[in-house]
Amino acid sequence: MPDFSVILLEPKYQGNIGAVARAMKNFGFKNLILINPPEIGGEARAMSMHGRDVLENATCLNSFNELKERFDFLVATTAITAGDRNALRSPILPGQLETALDLDGNIGLVFGREDYGLFNKEILMCDLLVSIPTSAEYPTLSLSHSVAIILYEISKLDKIKIKKKERKFREANRKEKEILLEKFDDLVDTLYENDFKCRLAKKTFRTLMGRAFISGRESFTLIGVFRRANDRIRRR
Fold this sequence. Notes:
Layout: E1 3-9, H1 14-26, E2 31-35, H2 42-48, H3 52-56, E3 59-61, H4 67-70, E4 73-77, H5 98-101, E5 106-111, H6 120-124, E6 128-130, H7 143-166, H8 174-191, H9 195-211, H10 216-235
Parallel strand pairs: 1-2, 1-5, 2-3, 4-5, 4-6
């Protein structure tokens, strides 16, 4: 898992900064960077709730240019999107951020100003652009809500990756799947005389196999079941 930081570029309201710190705490993120923030006072601390430690340990920078020295990969966020003709404003969706999770090092999630967002020159300095799909009637989210959605997606993808690594079952290899399909076909041929029903059953099972995760142990068990069932039917 790379090291993620939330970067707020020139936030206007200290209450928003506190709310972002709270959202970060909710999802287990702790690195907050503020570029030219307002004075942090009681409102920010009150809004941060149990994320006050995130707020108090935030790093303050003077310039956006300093980010390149600190991060290996920068993800920009925007509410303003465009079509294919404007590659600069053609973002990915939050659920596609698994690309960033495959990287090592320091990754910065850059959130723009509450009123103007990120300028094109700042987006150009980033490696990836992401946008949260919203209603066309009111597409702009509050700063803390935007941060919360992006962090949720990243934490969700991270948990999926961890689950895959912790999975103790070995997926059935191609040879095992071929044998399993072969034994199922043998059983179907024994059960049905109608060609249409045979083809339908075989197609249905292949579709099911294509969608399902079948472990090596499960394939071995099913191969045995199909083989024994076929042998018993034929002996009758």
